[in-house]
């Protein structure tokens, strides 16, 4: 059973999401919160697998709450937002969120997102998430430097670049003529070396370190 916490200051939004998720045999909404402070407390009390976190809430916003929730825990956070190109969402991805959804998402997309993130994968919709990260990472004045990047092999750098381009493990395997299992192993080793939670943080780091450059900056 996937345990979910709903954190949103709008009661109707929480009620709608709860109705959708509780209708699934493998998902249970175990708690709700109306602000970031409550989200942190309810997470500690109920230990959910996934938190659906509104980005704008009173008392403590979703950005600060996300950082606290993911700190020293395996809890996964999906950010809820009204607009996909939102610098607060980018900050939340940097802070450890595993992906985001716009609030008017289709019910099946919501259910799929919860299942994807619960099993430890990042919720990366290439058409939106890459664009969001490229937009805001492209504003960084100087590329971030991380000594950990020096620990990557040439093959691992190649794989990380393809992850940042939105390719799945199977697509990476096909492009590099590898088995899917080998591609998955490369991705796992990269995440371990760079100490990141999932693919979302890999994509952020790839753009911020200029390993991948937004298209408008290379023309």
UniProtKB/TrEMBL annotation:
Q: Can you tell which superkingdom this protein's organism belongs to?
A: Bacteria
What biological processes does GO assign it? phosphorelay signal transduction system; regulation of DNA-templated transcription
Answer whether the UniProt record assigns the keyword Ubl conjugation to this protein: no
HTH luxR-type domain: which residues? 145-210
Record PTM 4-aspartylphosphate, positions in chain: 54
Keywords, comma-separated and alphabetical = DNA-binding, Phosphoprotein, Transcription, Transcription regulation
Ranges of residues in domain Response regulatory: 3-118
Q: Which GO terms describe its molecular function?
A: DNA binding
Q: Pfam families, alphabetically?
A: GerE (PF00196), Response_reg (PF00072)
Extract the InterPro entries matched here.
Answer: CheY-like_superfamily, NreC/VraR/RcsB-like_REC, Sig_transdc_resp-reg_C-effctor, Sig_transdc_resp-reg_receiver, Tscrpt_reg_LuxR_C, WalR-like
**Could you tell me which CDD domains the record lists for this protein?**
LuxR_C_like, REC_NarL-like
Q: Entry's Gene3D superfamilies?
A: 3.40.50.2300
Protein name as annotated: Two component transcriptional regulator, LuxR family
């Amino acid at each position: 059973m996937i345990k979910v916490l709903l954190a949103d200051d709008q009661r109707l939004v929480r009620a709608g999401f709860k109705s959708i998720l509780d209708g699934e045999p493998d998902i249970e909404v175990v708690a709700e919160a109306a602000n970031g402070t409550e989200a942190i407390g309810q997470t500690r009390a109920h230990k959910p697998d996934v938190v659906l976190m509104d980005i704008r809430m009173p008392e403590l916003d979703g950005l600060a709450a996300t950082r606290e929730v993911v700190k020293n825990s395996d809890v996964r956070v999906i950010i809820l937002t009204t607009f996909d190109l939102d610098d607060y969402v980018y900050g939340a991805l940097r802070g450890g969120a595993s992906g985001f959804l716009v609030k008017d998402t289709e019910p099946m997309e919501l259910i799929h997102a919860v299942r994807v993130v619960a099993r430890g994968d990042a919720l990366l919709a290439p058409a939106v998430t890459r664009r969001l990260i490229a937009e805001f990472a492209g504003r960084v004045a100087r590329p971030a430097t991380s000594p950990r990047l020096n620990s990557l092999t040439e093959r691992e750098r190649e794989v990380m670049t393809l992850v940042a381009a939105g390719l799945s493990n199977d697509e990476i395997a096909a492009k590099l003529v590898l088995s899917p299992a080998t591609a998955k192993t490369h991705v796992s080793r990269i995440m371990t070396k760079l100490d990141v939670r999932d693919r979302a943080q890999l994509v952020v780091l790839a753009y911020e370190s200029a390993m991948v450059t937004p298209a408008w900056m290379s023309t």
